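Researcher: For the record, we're logging two predictions in this thread. I'll number them. Prediction 1 follows.
Model: Prediction 1, sequence and structure:
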Amino acid sequence: MHTKYLVKSFLNYCQLNNFEKNKNQIQLVKNLSNFVKKEKSFLNFFFKKKEKLCFYLYGDVGVGKTMIIDYVLNQFNLPKKRYHFNEFMINFHNYRHSNEKKSIMNFVKNLKKDTKILYLDEFQVTNIVDAMILGKLFETIFIENIKVIMSTNTKVDDLYKDGLQRDQFKPFLEILKRNSLQEQLIISDDYRKVGNDKLKMHFYPLNDKTKFKLNQLFRKLTKNKKHEIKNIFTKGRQFKISKFYDGIARFDFKELCDVNIGAEDYINISKVCNLILIENIPNFTDDNINQQQRFIILIDILYEKNISLIISSETSIKNFNSSKKLVSTFKRTLSRIFELTA
């Protein structure tokens, strides 16, 4: 599709869906569509001009990064795959662990069979295991000429900032910078908050009154639904959902975020649920940073899987505190809670 027609189509799409639009978004549509459709030419080869194989898009929460990338990619009939970054890395680690002979090169070769463009949404690096492997993984992806689109809240130089053994992560940063077109999307408003003046499924503070209202709502939602205990198995771990009613599950915050589980467990939980209630969410400080990190991953996955959410917490969403290291990432989490509980 020619770029000018794609822009016109995008403007019509925004109008039909009552989305706000501005010149920054329109320019992004142009740049991203040029990246997607650009092919290597004989002149590029002759003059040894290296094509950038990664479109790295960063910006604050709620500015429309995911919406625009999804829209543009849907206009092109190309073999493509879309993953939440956590899900992509889980697939990678599962592949490697299933057989010692399954190398990074074999993983990428298999990926290339049906993928010309790889879209990784919510790219972030939070653990040393991923930090140490990403350099070799993405170097191989780029060698195989797979185009990559990343959306994130963080510019490249700030990835894994203050992380454990960050020196081992720097080779990946250099590979990413060398292969990337970096673009920032700047918009003043968080569009996911528009129209959400009243949060209907968020209860605070934590007291007897809100507990009563929460119980009242839960009884209404689960009326005439069968109660059962649901067991979720992930790599030999068993996670028990003790309050499960035909797709509706109720948890205490500690059940989900104060135990040794992670992204793959949350993905498996989301597969059996269409609505999740999480109660007794605390405020966050440096003292409970591990619980906050799990909560961030959990909300990302619930958002990605479009799971409805009810929460009770110590404070309103706008007054949540954060550990110092997670302030920037947590902004996205709060924005997503606004939308999920609308």
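Researcher: Logged. Prediction 2.
Model: Prediction 2, sequence and structure:
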Amino acid sequence: MKRFLKVLVLLLALTGVVAGTVFWYMRRNEVPTASFRLAQVKRGDLAAEISATGTVEPEEVVDVGAQVAGQIKTFGTDKNGKPIDYGSAVEAGTVLAHIDDSLYAADVAQTAAALAQAQANLQQAQANLGQLQAKLNEAARDWDRAQKLGPGDALAQTSYDAYQAGYETAKANLAVGEATVVQTKAAVMQADAALKRAQQNLGYCTIVSPVRGVIIDRRVNIGQTVVSSLNAPSLFLIAKDLRRMEVWVSVNEADIGSISPGQLVTFTVDARPGQTFSGKVAKVRLNATMTQNVVTYTVVVATDNSSGRLLPYLTANVQFEVARHTDVLVVPNAALRWTPRPEEIAPEFRQAALPSGTVVAEKSGRPAQPAAEHGRGRTGVLWTRDGDYVRPVRVRTGLNDGTMTEAEGKDLKEGLEVVVGEEVPEATGVGTSTNPFTPQFRRTKESSQGQR
């Protein structure tokens, strides 16, 4: 009897050891239960926007060039008496620079002398014309007397013919004199035009500002030679009014249909962190450009710069407001993308949540669910806690700003907590094997999220 009791106690002890070992092993390899990350449904305003990048440009820019060639001798002065430079404020007519005018001054002197010579020739031709007119008058009187006498005893035939020839010659000489006067008058006009041209070129040696504005670019230095051939060289770039600026934005062809003149725009620049500027679409330029098979259009946005905070050619990060809804229910986009595993769904909702033909992701075991598209009014599914499980909430989606999506549904209300993800707490020895040659795996937060 005592021997039997000893065997029974030994068997019970061995059974307890085996049961404890099995329990310890199962606990060691148990996958930790996931905890859901939740977010509340909120009520607020939502705006759908198109993002693009542009450049801040002056509203009107005047490119001042040179019409003559020569060396830059000096710069002019601004209204403060300082030499013209970057950022100088100028008025219309302000002297910007002087080009070496020695050659052009010589041309003026040469053409002025040619004009004086032509004018002297004209006076001489006019005097000769007077002499020829007098000779014609004398020949005409002699010829009249000869005609009255006629050829005979009083006037020989040779004398009669000589008076007639003298009259005809004087008449022809007068015509030659008149033509010479006309020719010298034309020469005077030609010399006068050449003088005016030379004087104009001499005037071009002084570069003046055609408008009131600010110098935003000076492209020459003293001593530099500018050459004017087919194209006028650019010397200065003047912005007429920096209180009005434009943003030239490159917009993809897929978004250009949502942009129209008068549309509200907000933008930021890296030079002014934390500040947001506003403007309106002024025009959509139709000359599209293609870069690497991507077609873009230039949209001009007008903005006020009375404060002077915007500088030319800053890079602007632009947001075009396409639509705005106020006082609507919004949910995080992550809530519409997340889907649970079948075992995480409350039993009474599993059949409805996973209809026949539903595709289940191969690795995570989650049913595939299309994300709600921007502004399309499609149906979506949110998931909310139901004890240790989750249950679906059917909604219809609206505007999407990239982070939050407008949603509405009969079971959706403000303050409802929806699942946006899950976290699996790390556990020592999770997924380990007693065999030291077996690869060891751990299911962590990162790995679980990567499967979704």
